[in-house]
Structure formats: structure tokens, C-alpha cells
Protein 1
Amino acid sequence: MSRLFDIEGPNLDRGFENLKVAESPIERQLHELIESMWATYEPYADPDFRQGFARDVDGRFWEMYLGCTLIEAGRQLLPVSERQRDGGQPDLCVIENGQRIWIEAIAPDEGAPGPDQIGRPIPMNQGGGLFAAPIRQAQLRTSGAFWTKAQKIARYIEQGVIAPQDTRIIAISASRFGVYVSEQPLPLIMTTLFPIGDAFIAIDRGTGAVVEEGFHPAPLIERERNPIPRTAFLDQRFADISGVIWSRVSLGNLSRRVRPLTYVHNPLAQVPLPARWGIWDREFVATPEGEGWEASDILAPAPVVEVP
């Protein structure tokens, strides 16, 4: 068995180098945790995983975290010894009742410098102050990640890597910017895949009672250039995607109580994943309602959300 941190070479991730040396108690704890996870995940990882992890800790940790979570939940993963060598395959494959569930994982970064980048706050002692949470920018990065992986899955289908009856899932991690986005009232992925805008609440001035609450319709996400649609899961062009896994889990915060693992079903999916299939903490299902859609978390008591 190899060790994940036994990698030398140029262009190593700074986080990898810090965790490899592990000078602080927290770093030593994370070092041991990651090596333990690697012992579980190694039989299912691509041959270049260790090199990739050393240069992209967040992205590869997300893949390994998903793999270990699936294994711990009793799911059977396709081992690397049985995976296709030439042309590539999605990152993870679950084998269940003779069927395959493919998962393509991604952890988008904060983006290129400019108004659409997820900017980090400036410390108060360096002249910083209050600033608006970069929700729009996070939606743009998440939408871009979805688009990138949707195109990759389409190529796998065209090449025959993914069979027509196989389930196809995109797993998006917000680990690099999760501290800037919340889970309430909705996880950010819902306001990226569906035309859901800002939340609102209307209060009767006389009685103080809440008379209406909901979300403004918002079919577009504004950006420096042309705006982009946020209607992927209401668009037949993306019907080959079964759903999206979403989480803000990161090496800095592994609490699923604070940063739950969420699954969003594509209501137009050609090959849907069965409801309540898996390992999720939250699971959103959208169903037709009149001229629109209603989405709800079927795993927890939550208000119904009308999708404009």
C-alpha cells in the first residue's frame, strides 16, 4: 500500500506541503485522517491520483471523500483494476444490481481576477470592512463547473463509456468558497440549477403577521459579459444528467451537520436516480405544479419552494 504524502516534485499544492510536514496538532490530525481515507480509497483511485492530490488537494480530496462516504454506506465501487485504461472514465462508479452509477466530481476555484471572481474579505487591520457575500460570483463558479462536467459526461455517452441505461451524476464541491455561502433558506446549488432568486418575506404592518414569503423569479445570473441562464434542470439539453451532488464539506470543516451532503434530482432526467437512494443529508425533488414547479427537501421537514 502506498502513502498519499510520499510525493516529491515541483508545483506542489501549498496545502499539501503543509499537511505533509504537519507541524501543528491539527495538521497532524488531518494528515492521519487523510492517510486513513487513502487506505480505503486506493483500490478505486486512478493511477495518477497521488500526483493529482499533491497538486490539487481540494479537488482530489472531494473525490476521495465521496468514494469513502459511499463505501462506508455499503455501496460497491468499481475497482481501478476493472476500469477502462484508455480514453478515461468518470471519477467514480457505483455498481448496484448490475447497473452503473457514474459520478464526475469537481471542486471549482474562485475564478479569474475581476468582478466575477469570488473575492476574499480584507482584514479589518488592513483597511477592510463589511462586504456583501459573493453569492452571484459563487453561482457563476458553480454554474461553470456544472457546464464543464455536463459536456464531459456528454462525451462519455457519445464514446460509449457511459451506457444509455447508466445513471450520470455531477458532484460539485464548494470547499474552496463554502465559508461565503450558506445552506439556508436553500443550498446555493438550487439557485444555480433552477431560476430561483433572492428570498423575500411580506409582513402585515398592522398585525406584524407574515402574509407571504418565497423567492423572486430569476432566470439569469448576471456577469461582466452577457448573463447566463440558471435553468439547467428545466432544460432538455441537460436531460442526460441524472442529478447533482453538492456540499461545502472541506478539510477545514468536515461536519455534515453544518455542511450537509445534498442531492438535487433533475426532474427531466432520462435516467433518474431513485429517490432516497443514498447517503444524502438533504435531497431535493422538483415536481410540476400548475405552470411552474415545486421543489422540496424530501429528507427533512422544510417549506415547499415554488420554482418560478
Protein 2
Amino acid sequence: MGTSKTSSGPGKNVPLVPNWVGPDAPTPQVPSKPLTQPGDGGSPSPSPKPPEKRPDGPAPPKKPNEAPPDQGQENPTPTDLAPARRFTSARRAIGNFAKTGDSRSLRSALGNYVKKGYGGSATTSRRMSKSSSAAAGVFDILSRGDGAPTVDGEKSELDVSTLAGLSHSEVAERIAEAVNPGEVSLDDAGVREAIAEAVSSVLNENENADVTNLPPELAEECFVRTLSYSAFNILVADIGASVQRAAHGSAVLANDRLKEISDFVREAYRTQYVKVKAIGSKISRSTSAKIARDVTAQVMDIFESYLE
């Protein structure tokens, strides 16, 4: 069930989205409305006006301590840096949930985590982008029983035929290592753990399933669980220590509450995935990454709306 590791979470004056989070999840231009809360249509915001070109000639004098324009990505602006005590409200609320089991406290924790912890659903979705790429990688492997190349000609990271005869845990570990090998970032261990848990749990619940030719609905369930478990592991790394403290040394209580949180997050992802499919989005190896990002954005929108 999720990760057993907790920490005190990230400190202040660090980037809200760590530099190891890849660029595979573009920042949404306009936050989308949750599918459970459809809003009225509106005109898109006008594109920002491009900067005017300066005439040829000497550059204007640089102000004291002014950084060169090309350093914007290297030195985050103050608004891109995490403020002090940004998770205080989320940690207090999730601690109350650990003590009482009150779902209102859990919703408050998730809302504050998104709104105050990351400044809104758009930034939180970017923070979760490794979850999206992991889920897409799992679907890419499990949705091909024939080892066929993808639409762009690339082979899968792992030939599922090599998994025949392995135990469910061995299958899960092989897939996790293929999708997210190595220790490049602080998220990697949590991502591999999420993949392994997602795949093994689905296979354990479907003992007769053939991993070399997995039914589409089971490949999709592995996709959704990888997406939600990865996001849950990031959340626990940020604020999960408050659950342990609120349990006052009771490992049973702490694990029970963490499982409840994991189940809640998983159902939120599953609900939004079903709704995305209902409006005509069909998952495939070429669309899985985008669908993962879209579902994540919807879930984070809903979590943020818990504060309204």
C-alpha cells in the first residue's frame, strides 16, 4: 500500500516543481474545469503580446544586479520558489484525519496540499508529471501482447513474452525497472514502488490473467493504479510524516490511515479516467501519456475545489 517511507517534506526557497521533473507534461495555459463540475464556456484568453524588437544599436545599460535574460530557467523567480510553511495547513488537516478518520479533514488536507502547497492545480499537475509518464510506460508494455512497435516505430521497453512463467511480484518488478530504471531523481524509488504495487495488485486480483496477452481492461486498471499510486507516494513524501506523528507510535493506525488516503486518491483518479473515456477519449499507446496528464489535471482541480 503506497510507500512506507515518509520525510519532513521539501523546505522553503526550493523550486515548487523540482528540476528533475521532466518536460513531458506541458504547463496548461488555462486550468481546466473538473469533469464533475462542468462550467460555462468562455472565450480563450488572448495570447500574450510578443516583445517588441529593438532597433540595431548598442544595448541599453544594464541595471545593477540585473541578471541576463537567458538565465530565467537557471534562476527561478520568487514566485517559482516554495514559500515557508506552505504545507502547514495540509499537515494539520491530514493529522486530524489520522486521529479521527473524518473525511472532511482528508478533503481539507488535499485541498490545502494543492492550493497552498503548490499554488494551485496547474503547478501540482506539473509536480505529478513523473506519475503520468510512468502510467503511460506501464500501459505501453502491457497493451501489446505481440511486441509490435509503437506508431513511431519504437520498440517497447520490455517484451512481455519474457514475462511468461514469472510470479506476479517478479512480473511487477521487471516492469517497474523497465519503465523507470536507475536512481536519477528523488521520485524514482517511489515511482517504481507504485508501478510494482499497481501491477502486482491487479494480477493478484486476476489470478488467471495472462500477462503476455493482458485484456485491455486490466491493462487500463494497471494504468490508473500506477497513476494514482505514484501521485500518492509524492503526497506522502511531502506531508505523510504528519500521519505518523498523529498516530502516536501506532503503526497499525498509521498504515490504516495511509491506506484510506491511497484508496481515496485511487478512486478520484479512476472516476476521472472513466469520465475522460465517456467523452470520447480512447486510450492507446500513442494517447496514454496525454490522457494521464489530463486525468491528473482534473483530479488536482477537484482536490483544490475542496476548499471552496
Protein 3
Amino acid sequence: MAAIADLIQNFDLVQSAQLIAIFLFAAIVKGFLGIGLPAASMAFLTLVMPPTEAIPLLWLSILATNSLQFARAPNKWDIAREYWLFALAIMVCIFVTSMFISDYPTSLLTVAIGVAMVLFSLNLLLGIKLRIGPGRGWHLGFGVLSGTLGGISSIWSPTVAMYLVARDVSKERFIGTTGFLFLAGVLPLGAGQVVAGILTFPMLLKSALALCVVLVGFRIGEMLRDRVSQELFRKAVLTAFLLMGLRLIANGLS
């Protein structure tokens, strides 16, 4: 009750309106493209708050949207059997790196978020395809990279998407697999943030409020898939992500 009372007492109308707009936009992107919630959110959240405050705000939203995404995927058990090692590597690395997030300099977090956004946008804009095989070693390597990036920035979609694009998986398989691999990292990410002291009960309440907005935006994004040119929307969003990512890198290095 004390946490709720404190939340009401410190209510800021302007910042609340900013956060609603940010989460609504990010959720529409997620619902439309199947990926991009953390990247879209962090691009704007870092304009109004430090990274260590912005990152835990996303936790419940990442959990809920990827649970929905994976729940709707066909062949769920087949996906889990194929990508279990990828998921395990993400879980271990995301937990270990997120445990120490409070100790990382703000500049490092800012640059890490910017790099993640640039990789994410360039990968999808240019359709970068690496020569990657189906072996377990690739799953382990990309899982470690994804988990490390996710623990520092809460964004582990760039390397996951890069791997799946390189493997030329179908759109349906891409949506299901990203849902599984993003979902795999959420609980370890939350546990690491609890250990680090940034995912507290008051922050969890704020994350729950953000989730209410995200669920609305996620549904809007899903409905827009058949009504808006996917290629046009995709290019506009990814170009914006690229510019925002470059800005974050520049700010972090300055």
C-alpha cells in the first residue's frame, strides 16, 4: 500500500503522457512486426530517464507480449526442441550480465542500447545474411551474444533476428521462434534486475501500468498488419531506429 501511495503522490502528468505515447508506439511496432518492443521503447525512454530506470519498466511488457506471441505459434514444441541450447545460453548470459547492471557506467549502457538498435535496424533494412549453419555451436555462440547484449540493454533481438534471417526461416517460423527466444530470456532478466536492485516492487507497479498500454498497442499493431503497407511501415520504423541508435552511441561516447 505504501508503494501505491508513493506512486500516486509522485504522479507526474507530463511524464505519464510521454510514457503512454512511448509504450503505445512501441507496442504497435511489436504487434505489427513481431519484434521491436524493447528497441522502440528504449529509443525514447532514454530521452526522459536514465537507462537503469527505463530498463526495468519493460520487464512485464516483454513477458506478456512474447508469451502471447509464442502461445499463438504453431509447432511450439518443435521450436523448443530445435532451439533449446540457444535459449539456455540466452538465459544464463542474460542473468549474469543483468545482475551487475547497476555497476555499469551510464555511458556504457547508453552505447550498448545504441549499438543494439543500430544492429537491429541495419540487419532488417539491409537483409544481412551471414553464412550460418544449423549446428549447436552456432546456437551456443549466438545465444551467448544475445544474452550478453540483452542483460546490458534489455534488447537481444538484433542477434536473434540476424541468425534467423541468415537461416532463411519462414515468416511464421520467425515469429514463433523469436517469441520463444525472447520469452526464454525474460525471467532470468527479471531475476538479475532484482539482484541488481533495479526491479523493485514500486518499479514492478509502474511496469504493470505500462503493460496495460502495451497490450492495447500490441493489439492495434496486429490489426494493422493487413491494413497498412508492411514494407513502408517497416522501412520508416527501422530508419528511425537507426538514427536514434546513432544518436545514443554519440551521446554515450561524448
Protein 4
Amino acid sequence: MRFLRTVVLLPFLLVIGCSGNTTAAVETTAPAGERPGAVVVRYVSCGGMTCEGGDSMSVTADGRAVSLRDGELVVVPLPAAELRDLRAGLVESLAGREGTLDRTGGATDQPFAVVTVIDSGGKTHETRLEGTPSAEDEPIVAATGRLSKLTARIRSTGTPDVTAPITVTMYEDPSTRPIRQATWPEDITTPIEAATGGNFGTLTYRGGEATTLRAALGKAGDNVTVTAGGKTLIARWEAVLP
């Protein structure tokens, strides 16, 4: 069963989810006045109606550059100087080009990219480029190219953060072939229960619950069979991109 991935972009909110056993440790410090875990750079690039196979990444004020690799959150620590240069460069590229740049010519299901950055003064800058870029969009294209390369770097060299929150999707679909049978922990609410019944639900888990579910369900992205509410359902999880 395939799901179209819906992206909701608000200032500092993106709703979009290599398995390992090592937690990334990043020894960096956020600039004065900024919360260490606050997202200061966000990038997403999608094709048509789905973001499957697209790019997505975030950078926090303390230099954690993160993306998803095979459903697991992976981290690359950025030196303070590199982060300052990245933010300043993106602010310059977006200057005078904020908002939505519609290059679709009225066509639907066009690819799009969104770049969001917070400058040193705390102001949010965001540009959404839809369709095929025009010559005047060169600064935005350069910015997306830079962020795409950073995303590739994170995915190729990043360290898995096995403490990251996870989102579990649970649904009923006889046509889906599960990897294996799993046992849902009795003391953890299922996504179906949280959705007040039905045959489909998603729920985000943090801390100890996320750790327990990782152990119970196995590798990120695997479809496993679980029994919940007297039904046989499919469950899968992926880490949450901050």
C-alpha cells in the first residue's frame, strides 16, 4: 500500500518521517538568544503530488544538520562558522524573492522546493519555487542546489540518532505483505486507538515509548503485522524530522 506524502509548511513546522544502534552526539553551542534545538534552516524538494524520493533536511541552531536515511534520522554536526555562512548565504539568496514563485504556467502536479531560513536577528525568510525555474530564479536555484548537496552529505555520512521521536502508521490492508509478525507493547496506545477506531491511524512517540516501539517493530520502514483491538493490522515507523 502506498501513501502520498502531504507536506504542511508553516514557520518552523514541517510535517512530512540506515537503521543503526549508535546515538549521534553533537558537541555544538547555539548562538546567544537561540534555543539549541530550534530549527534555523529547512529545505524540502518534492516532485508533483508526492515527496517520496525527494530531499528534506533541517539544521538546528546548535549545528545539528539532520535528514532521513531509510526512515532513520541521521545527523552531521556543522561547525559554527559553516552554519553562519550557510544562513547568511541563504538569506542573501532569498532577499527580494520571498513568498511563492509560480513557474508552473498553470500546469498541475508540478515539482516544488521550499527554503526556509532564520537570520541572525530572528526574522524568518521563506521562498517556495514551483515548476521549472526561470533565469531570474538563479539565486534560488543556487540555494536549493547547496541544500541538496548538504542533504546528500548528511545521508551519506550522518550518524543515526536512535533517540529521535518516531511516527508509527497503522492500517488494515490484506494486500500488503508484512516482513514478520510483531507484538505491540500492551502499555502503549496504538495509532488506531488514538484515532478513535477505524482501520487507519498515525501517532508520534517520544522518549521511552519510541525506544520500546523501535525494539518491538524492528527496522524503520518495515511493514510488520500486529494485533490491535482484535484486528490484524500492518504497522510501520519512521523517525521524525525536526
